[in-house]
Amino acid sequence: MLPEVHSVGSSILRQIAKQNLKILDDAKLGLGGHRMRKILVLAMTVLGIASSNANAQTDLTAYADPEGYIDVQALTCAALAGTWQGDADRLTTWYSGWYNGLAKKHFFNVARSKELEHEVIVYCKANPQIRIIEAVSVLLKQERFMNGFK
Fold first, then answer.
1. What residue ranges do the domains of the chain occupy?
2. In this structure, how many other beta carbons lie within 10 angstroms of the beta carbon of residue 13?
3. What residue spans of 3-30 are helical by DSSP H?
4. How confident is the model over 77-132, as pLDDT tens digits?
5. What is the pTM of this model?
6. pLDDT averaged over the chain?
């Protein structure tokens, strides 16, 4: 199953640019209008190039099985880094609970959780090929090392 991708297509931007150019032509502007037309074309071109390089967001439902479940142990960093912020928040909260459950910890530090979530997402963007559980493991080991734990 291919992920559902949401992004602004460059064809939409080209269509908007054509409409704006037609409005300028219809207004029969003089020399100032010709200069403005050039500026508008340049601005729309820059916008089109910038948006074509933007990363598309994928819904987490794209990774779910027919019953709606996601195999969180198989999910890669590319999925985390490429999903909506709300979905990334939910995933990292789930992983935090999972790891805290394994460690038999029952406390939740909201500020620390947000910081770790950010670190996981940054690490995942740099390493999209690895699984999220591997990224979390690496960051937890780094944190233990920094705090003097083995």
1. 5-52, 59-146
2. 18
3. 10-26
4. 999 999 999 999 899 889 988 888 888 988 888 888 888 889 999 999 999 999 99
5. 0.59
6. 76
User: How far apart are the C-alpha atoms of 141 and 150, rounded to whole Å?
Assistant: 8
Nearest CA among 138, 87, 92, 86 for reference residue 118: 92
Do residues 131 and 75 touch, judged by C-beta distance below 8 A? yes
Can you tell me which residue has the tokens 């960051």?
A: 139
pLDDT in tens, 127-139: 999 999 999 989 9
Round to whole Å and give the CA distance between 140 and 143.
5
List the structure tokens of 33. 């209008």
- Which of the listed CATH numbers 1.10.4160, 3.30.70, 3.30.530, 1.10.890 matches domain 59-146? 1.10.890
Q: Is the alpha carbon torsion for 69, 73, 74, 75 positive or negative? A: positive
| Structure-token match 């029969």, residue found | 28
